[in-house]
Amino acid sequence: MSEPSRQYFEDIQVGDEYLSPGRTVTEADIVAFAGLSGDYNVLHTDAEFMKSSIFGERIAHGLLGLSISSGLGARAVPRPFATLAFLGLRWRFKAPIKIGDTIKVRMKVTGKKETSKPDRGIVTIQRHVLNQRGELVQEGDTELMIERRK
Amino acid sequence: MPRYFEDLEVGDGFETPGRTITEADVVGFAAISGDQEALDFTVGDSGLAPVVPDLLVMAITSGLGFRAPSEMPHVLAFMVFDLRPRVPVRVGDTIHCRIRVAGKRPMKDGGVVVERRQMVNQRGDVVQESEYKLLVARRPRE
Question: Of A21, A97, B81, B89, which sits 20 to 30 A from B117 (CA to CA)?
């Protein structure tokens, strides 16, 4: 049974766009992510060392930015996609995210593809992660397998 | 002593120790990412444990890379990656990572190193594959 609260393959159109709310990335997020991932690289954890780096301060883990953008993405889409599987991701890190930066995600449907199975299709979503100055900090494309209406 | 661009050779490879992914990791990841989708821990009719978000598996892999037997390369920037999930990872699975240098290209301030990573579960199944492009520092001149 299809659920009215979800968006199926037929409901999603190339060109659909979503903008998420913002989220401020704090020192606590970076410390928590270091603990969770086990990535204690000095880039993210040594404030003294980073004073003399090209960044001048600690920066967020690239994957922390990606993780936060996935949560923001979920909040950007009013009716969630009827996703069956996450097929893949290509992601580029363009600029650092620093403590206190506020990021948003702009999502755009850039592709729809039929598959050999009639009950599903593949949707490509482009994501741009922007900071408070509108600078692109991360970007990438996600491929999702989405259910069709029954 | 960190390893520099000059120290890395195509074909170099190693395996990390393993790490068991727990429900606590999934809860911690939901809190940080804000993505609440993976928080339903109900075991369905299949009897299989709940699926772990792919990005959490990737985050844990990034930390496992630091527990490799050799020193990490001196990474200046993480540039691009491609992620291909292959098999779902479930709560209670123990994953480790195989890392191999697949290519390198010199640049002005360092060089680009291409790494292929395979995340493997306790049964030896490859659960995720990824390719990273990293900017690695050159050895400083004496």
Answer: A97
For tokens 């492009």, what's the residue? Answer: B133
**CA dist., res. B118 & res. B129, Å (int):** 5
Match 């930390």 to its residue by tokens.
Answer: B63
Residue of chain B whose Cα is closest to the Cα of A38: B63
Q: Could you tell me if the ipTM is greater than 0.85? A: yes
Q: Does B109 touch chain A (CB under 8 A)?
A: no
**CA A72/CA B12 separation, integer angstroms:** 38
**Does B39 contact A at CB distance below 8 Å?**
no
Question: Are residues A38 and B82, on separate chains, in Cβ contact within 8 Å?
Answer: no
Q: What is the value of pTM for the model shown?
A: 0.92
Tens digits of per-residue pLDDT, A17-53? 999 999 999 999 999 999 999 999 889 999 999 999 8
Amino acid, res. B48: L
C-alpha dihedral (B122, B128, B129, B133), degrees to nearest 10: -110
Which residue has tokens 């978000």?
B53
Strands B13-15, B19-20: pairing is unpaired
Chain A contacts of B60, Cβ < 8 Å? 36-38
The shortest C-alpha distance from B11 to chain A (Å) reads: 23
